[in-house]
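Tutorial sheet, problem 5. The two components below are modelled jointly, 318 residues in total.
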Amino acid sequence: MKSSVIVFPGSNCDRDIAVALEKLQFKNKMVWHKETSLPKSDLIVIPGGFSYGDYLRSGAIAGKSLIIDEVIKAANSGCLVLGICNGFQILTETGLLKGTLLRNKNLRFINRDVNIKVINNQTKFSSKYKSNQILKINIAHNEGNYFTNSKHLDQLKKDNLIAFKYCDENGNINESSNPNGALENIAGIYNTKKNILGMMPHPERMVDDIISNTDGISLFSGLIN
Amino acid sequence: MGKQFQLNSKKNKLRFSVTVTLKKDVLDPQGKVVQNTLLNLGMSNLKNIRQGKFFEIEIDETDQIMAEKKVEEMCQKLLVNFIIEDYKINILK
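Model answer (structure tokens):
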């Protein structure tokens, strides 16, 4: 299984995701944003960070970079694409995922472990999780407040495109378990073909008991087969 | 030569402003905080504040319609996120 991690000026989770992928036996390559071709990849990861210092809007400038045209082509031909945190913001700016990420409702940068619930476990990314399984995953963002129009929200629900929702430790999805104000507690979504996943939580930070937990492993190990 | 070039570029230049604001139904937490702070400063008749962005754009073009089209394209391609933002283009004299 070959993976590529796209690196922008200001990416800061690129090495973490590379460590996680290599731990799970991916053959990974780092790809600088100025490249105009992608190595052959089964999975492309757009990592977290502050690409271009969040200038204009989070992910807006990275979403127009040279390598992005190749990412869009690969995604449209079925390649798996995972955008985490700033990577999710970049995917919405490219149009590969619909909606956008607004400033957190409380106007604060939030860095803590939160609970999320697996809403759809029928995709390549989530097949190793149980339906409604509760994971504890770190979030670290300033703009994680997912927003989209009501027509798209209906489609997300109807086509089972909501990947994860924020919840409490008992799985309750409500306002008090919503850290950033995201619409209907949405923490991650798929595109209609379900080969693209964008999520605010950081699964790459949850692959080792020594530093956190291992709740993120199944997301990557599910892709290996 | 340098002077001539400067003269030409001045003649060809058209200036625009683009104002980008959040759509009415999108929550603007930054605007709210600014509003609350102004209310605390005693601006009691303040009704509402929405925060936005302002761009000043110079285009090397003599034809106003062509230049406006370019600015429009800039808005479409990068400056505006149409899901949450509205924009207004004005020509600056």
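Marking note: The first strand of chain B starts at residue 13 and ends at 22. Full credit if you identified this.
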